[in-house]
Amino acid sequence: MITKKLYRRIALILSFTVLMNFLLPFNGMADSRVGCKTVIFSDSTKVKRLFGKGVHNRVLPASTTKVMTALLVLEHLPLDKYITVTSRATKVQPTKLYLKPGEKYRVRDLLFAILLKSANDASIVLAEAVSGSEQKFVALMNKKAKQIGAKHTKFANSNGLPSRAKQYTTAYDMYLIFRKALKHKFFRDTIKLRYKKIYSRSGREIALKSHNKILFKDWRRKIYGKTGYTRAAQACFVGTMQKGDSTLIIAVFGCSKRWETIKHVVSKYGGIRL
Does a structural domain hold residue 16? Predict the structure, then answer.
């Protein structure tokens, strides 16, 4: 015969088990197929988080930094304005376009370059065009991050390359930054491109190919966004897709299995067959 005391204990254990089964997958602690240090997957339309793992943990942003760079450029420069390549911009580490000092490119073409090819030299040219120097542009980036609500983000440059100065973000903060960038039609259209050709004012042609491998996979649905990678940061990505009337955003950082994790999380927690 079960006593009232024993019954209460059993009920408590069962309640705790049910609660943990709900919480652990949501927090990413019990999902062995998540091969990234931090993940956020949210319905930004309904403001509902579908999955999270370490969403407020500090991570290196790598080239997802360029989402903020693009956002500020779109807010400050006309797309058809020609801007000049400086000598300083050409000395940055790859990935880059190998731009030449004195060349002139339209703002829109250099935005294509940073969002598709992740060109570090193009990022600096754009930053200098907005603020006069990359250092001043970084100050603008950090100010904008705070305005958006990305309070745990600090940028050190316009491209996300390793630096002596501290730089960091969180999956949640990058979700906020990316959500803001999506308000710009040019940004939304650009991240959907697989290829693009751009031209200098003098006619030099540069072919671009997106670093987003999802666009080249045989998935049923595509996720459009910005990649990043450095040895320290590992692989990362922030991107978006539609589900009915909802805009879904996923951000992953510190990944050993970036694409596999994205496919698993979106399929399992978003109910979307990829």
Answer: no
